[in-house]
């Protein structure tokens, strides 16, 4: 990454949806205090229980958040995509991260020092309100996810998680919804709480029914209405 790349990211920061809630003065402060860093696929941003020194904004790429039990088993996994800020639920919260973060693709990150960013948010009731609205949407998504993982049928859980991925990461393109990330069947099985074999069978059936195209670099949702109905 060269200096011009950094300049371009910084110049376009106020056009990113998350930062439109901030005043021009606040955005200028954020640009001055922040660090831009590139992470390679598989590189850790931080580990669970590390000191919380930065908040992160994804300029480009895909990040996996994961929490593990004391015996090392994964108990929670989520994905953070381009133009997302995280960890939302920890703003003004604990001094440590409650999950680990790993780059699932090459990712360009804006790193915002915790104390300075919280001071900006705290100084503006308007920003606090917008942050609260965003957090409410995050919580609503996770409520849907909790309901999905409590379904007894593994097949239905896989379909529900595909629907939630569509809702969270999908973008409209030519009448279809594209999830533009290399999400694997193993990862789908993991978040759905089932086996790769079961998830693979569901993907095969949905492909044969012409509801999805599941590729190595993206997932194409051909029948968005089918999936929207699952999570209404």
Automatic annotation (TrEMBL):
Keywords noted in UniProt: DNA-binding, Transcription, Transcription regulation
Key word DNA-binding present: yes
UniProt keyword Membrane present: no
GO cellular component, one term: cytosol
Source lineage: Bacteria, Bacillati, Bacillota, Bacilli, Lactobacillales
Domain HTH crp-type: 152-225
Protein name: Cyclic nucleotide-binding domain-containing protein
PROSITE patterns: CNMP_BINDING_3 (PS50042), HTH_CRP_2 (PS51063)
Molecular functions (GO terms): DNA binding; DNA-binding transcription factor activity
Species the sequence originates in: Dolosigranulum pigrum ATCC 51524
Domain Cyclic nucleotide-binding: 18-138
